[in-house]
Amino acid sequence: MRSAFVIIGLCAILLGCASIQNAPVNQPGSSADLAGQLHENFEERTAADDDLVGLSFSGGGTRAAAFSFGVLEELAQIPARGGGGVSMLDRIDFISGVSGGSVTAAYFGLRKRAALADFRERFLLRNAEEGLQTDLNLATLGKAFAGGINDASGLPRWLDANLFHGATFADLRRTVRPRVWINASDIYNRTPFVFGVTAFSAMCSDLGSYPLANAVAASAAVPVAFAPVVIQTFPGRCKDPLPAWIVKARDNRNAPPMLSAFAKAVSRYHDGEIPYIKLLDGGLVDNYGLSGFTIARLSASTPYEPLSPSQAVKIRRALFLVIDAKTGVAGNWINTVEGPSGVDLVKAAADTAIDASVGAGYTAFERTMGDWQAALIRWRCGLSAADRARYGARPGWNCHDLKLFVGRIGFDQLDPTRAARLETVPTRFHLPPQQVDDVIAAGRDALRASPTFRAFAGSM
To answer: Alpha-carbon distance 266 to 392, whole Å?
Structure first.
């Protein structure tokens, strides 16, 4: 009993000494400031060709960043239909990133093809943990209990100094391709938080001025290791009403659970019910980053959304790939009656929750995309001749000529020995160069071996 009081007293002392500074950096935005943000960020698909490519980069620290980078490198080597020096890399329309995958997504979205030349040296081979405290011990316990061992300044500062150099979402959105979504977790509403127009417009905040480094850091803010990243809402600072689909989903008791929870969270931002949004690692609620794609379709009021009618008429092939760098099962506590305990228990609980959510999320996404393909074909085949001409149908156009390809690329799809080795690579932001290069090579090889990608490329 005496030892218990000693421990409690020690914790109280540590808590008293700990202080977490986590001031929000987002800025308010008036209706005029938000005028260019009125389109839902999932809706924009302005490229004119008839294929669509979407990638989703999972969480997993530098390992995930390297695996997704390998996929991008391989896409750069595959010529796109039509030639002219254009590769499949140049045809990427959407990238969704979570945690480690968000680093690659944001940097590629910002620099496009040029990112392939220096991302390995500027990030993958660097130690993004320098200056951070990464161990839970007596010296860091007080900060852990106070909200997080590291506050919200260290990782954003490193990312900005080494990768983003002051870049904001305005810089990210200057070009059409690719549209990038960075995903964190709203830990109060227990929903995904997508750094995009919907959330920022609802909270009357300026998306364009928000730093990319801070969004990526929020996406990678592992609980306990990091304090939550805070976003402030500014209710009443703008006059834009909530989008109709948000109100409909919020008030519909029979709305899909994912859509309902997201709509209720956005409504709370707008109404001032939540003055401060607290964000942690996006993998807590969606380690595949598929919620944005799924919500875009579930919220649609027409068969063709989130495409425009002309885009929906022209499209023939669409590819959606999840680049999955998750860990395999691990731990020796299954061999004893005791355990897991301490850090192992926290990690096992988090891994269990994440794996369960990604399985359900991927299944929901597959079903949603299948339903969307069927709805698009029905809509296209029901168009009048005048509508087909108005929307730009080409001579010989076939309303049934539409196929959506959905797949996952992971370590487990490589040979078992190699996969087992890759699954032991730690999920942190500092890896030896050989491990980095092994994971990059795995990304290239996994894409080449993917039956989904081969089928997509063959259909073109």
So the answer is: 36
pLDDT digits 0-9 by tens, 54-113: 999 999 899 999 999 999 999 999 988 766 778 899 889 889 999 999 999 999 999 999
Q: Give the 3-state DSSP-derived string for the chain, with helices as H, strands as E and coil as C.
A: CHHHHHHHHHHHHHHHHCCCCCCCCCCECCCCCCHHHCCCCCCCCCCCCCEEEEEEECCCHHHHHHHHHHHHHHHHCCECCCCCCCEHHHHEEEEEEECHHHHHHHHHHHHHHHHHHHHHHHHHCCCCCCCCCCCCCHHHHHHHHHCCCECCCHHHHHHHHHHHCCCEHHHHCCCCCCEEEEEEEECCCCEEEECCHHHHHHCCECCCCCEHHHHHHHHCCCECCECCEEEECCCCCCCCCCCHHHHHHHHCCCCCHHHHHHHHHHHHHHHCCCCEEEEEECHHHHCCCCHHHHHHHHCCCCCCCCCCHHHHHHCCEEEEEEEECCCCCCCCHHHCCCCCCHHHHHHHHHHHHHHHHHHHHHHHHHHHHHHHHHHHHHHHHCCCHHHHHHCCCCCCCCCCCCEEEEEEEEHHHCCHHHHHHHHCCCCCCCCCHHHHHHHHHHHHHHHHHCHHHHHHHHHC
Cα(401)–Cα(248) distance, rounded to whole angstroms? 33
Token representation of residue 62: 């530098």
At residue 277's C-alpha, the angle toward residues 274 and 279, to 5°, is 155
- Taken in order 114, 116, 117, 119, is the CA torsion positive or negative? positive
**What is the token pair recorded at 269?**
């931002």
Single out the residue of 269, 259, 327, 262 nearest to residue 299, CA to CA: 259
The structure tokens listed for 183 are 């995903």
Q: Are 108 and 148 in contact (CB under 8 A)?
A: no
Q: 108 φ, ψ to 5°?
A: -65, -40
Q: How far apart are CA 187 and CA 282, in angstroms?
A: 10
**pTM assigned to the model:** 0.87
pLDDT in tens, 346-394: 666 666 666 666 777 788 889 999 999 999 999 999 999 999 999 999 8
